[in-house]
Design goal:
This protein has 395 residues and is an alpha+beta fold. It contains 8 helices and 17 strands.
Length: 395
């Protein structure tokens, strides 16, 4: 399953509609295509995605909330009950007389004979979410499907007028009220979204392994390590760690590794192992504050791997947030960057709608204030400065 677009409305934390495009918005040149992934083709038209999406904004702008919304949608598509999804707090503030609407567009397998162009079809899932007794529930839901017509164009990609309704909640009366009708779709078409969500690791940096760590990965982050191996039995796991020229260390808990490995090595191994997983499956790796514990070169390396077709053959996608505008200069295009602001509610705007030219240095445009709301307020800075001076004098 490949995501094409998420459109969310009525969520109290957001100022207006939140729209995330996975299909490239700008024109794609032959040079651009080398760092991008083809999702599908219709006749002579290729529908291409940016393999990296960046969310950037100042502190408390709502970047993490946007990532949680994306994660929530992916996990809902994977049949998880809404109230068990640990980022359901994106709906905080939704009153019992209010509702939010999620429109999710995706490409997936199709068993319908009329959709047998590469066995895929384009789908629109419309989910209306409400709250009752402090629990989320799905009030209405429909899934509409259309074939990939040879004359399909970008401007009609998300036009579902006249498309058939392939599933509706009203005909699934035995379905739990917080489980999407996608449970029936996924079972029939053997589909799922492959997602590696690292939001929980933003403030907790602890290594998690299910198998031996590849030597090349260890050497990239800490060449002084000779090996890191697991010994499993029915009850527990023993961790074997050896540094070059030193005796082997045997540990019983992953948390003990924090005594021997740097925070950058721990986050690096966690992150790159998950990247390897999504490279294999063509999934989505979601990371909040990508630069945490990393130097810039490691961050740039990860971004470049996702944009390298020799490594990323399946069109896996990295979606991350950052505070650092310098990372934006890794991108030649503007449509894989989203500016996140919080002014009486979170807003999300694609950079291509603000900055029309790709050749302008993105970090400078961001830091200059040209994009509005992307640099800390001068008045707040002056208030802080005066408070520090006053505290010094009183001290």
């Amino acid at each position: 399953m490949k995501l094409l677009k998420i459109r969310a409305s009525g969520i109290p934390l957001f100022k207006d509609i939140c729209e995330i495009d996975y299909i490239a918005r700008q024109r794609v040149t032959a040079d651009d295509a080398e760092a991008m992934g083809t999702v599908f083709t219709a006749g002579m038209q290729a529908f291409v995605q940016n393999n990296v999406l960046a969310m950037i904004g100042i502190n408390a702008s709502g970047k993490t909330t946007v990532l949680k919304l994306i994660t929530f949608v992916c996990r809902m598509l994977n049949n998880e009950p809404l109230n068990r999804i640990d980022c359901a707090e994106v709906f905080d503030g939704l009153a019992e007389n209010q509702y939010a609407t999620l429109e999710t567009y995706f490409l997936a397998n199709s068993n319908a004979p009329c959709h047998q162009i590469d066995g895929k079809a384009i789908n629109q899932l419309k989910t209306v979410i409400g709250r009752k007794d402090d629990k989320l529930l799905i009030l209405q839901e429909t899934l509409r499907t259309k074939a990939i017509a040879k004359d399909l164009r970008k401007k009609t990609l998300f036009d579902f007028e006249g498309a058939e309704t392939s599933l509706s909640r009203q005909f699934n009366e035995f379905l739990l009220d917080d489980v999407s009708i996608m449970v029936a779709f996924n079972k029939k078409n053997k589909e799922q979204v492959v997602i590696a969500d690292m939001l929980r690791y933003t403030n907790i940096n602890q290594l998690r392994l299910s198998e031996d760590c590849p030597f090349e990965l260890i050497a990239f982050f800490d060449p002084s390590i000779e090996y890191l191996r697991l010994e499993k039995n029915s009850k527990d796991v023993r961790i074997h760690l050896k540094f070059r020229g030193k005796r082997e260390i045997i540990l019983n808990q992953f948390s003990d590794l924090n005594r021997y490995l740097s925070s950058g090595t721990i986050k690096g191994i966690n992150t790159f192992l998950k990247a390897m997983h999504v490279f294999e499956a063509g999934g989505y790796l979601i990371i909040d504050e990508l630069e945490n514990h990393f130097n810039r070169e490691i961050v740039s390396t990860l971004i470049r791997l996702f944009m390298d077709k020799k490594v990323n053959k399946t069109g896996a996608m990295l979606i991350f947030s950052t505070h650092y505008p310098e990372l934006l200069d890794e991108f030649k295009r503007n449509d894989n960057i989203y500016i996140v602001r919080n002014r009486q509610g979170i807003s999300v705007e694609n950079l291509s709608l603000i900055l029309k030219r790709n050749d302008i240095k993105k970090s400078e445009a961001y830091q200059s204030g040209y994009l509005e709301g992307t640099v800390p307020m001068y008045e707040a800075y002056m208030d802080l400065k005066r408070a520090l001076i006053k505290a010094y004098k009183e001290g």
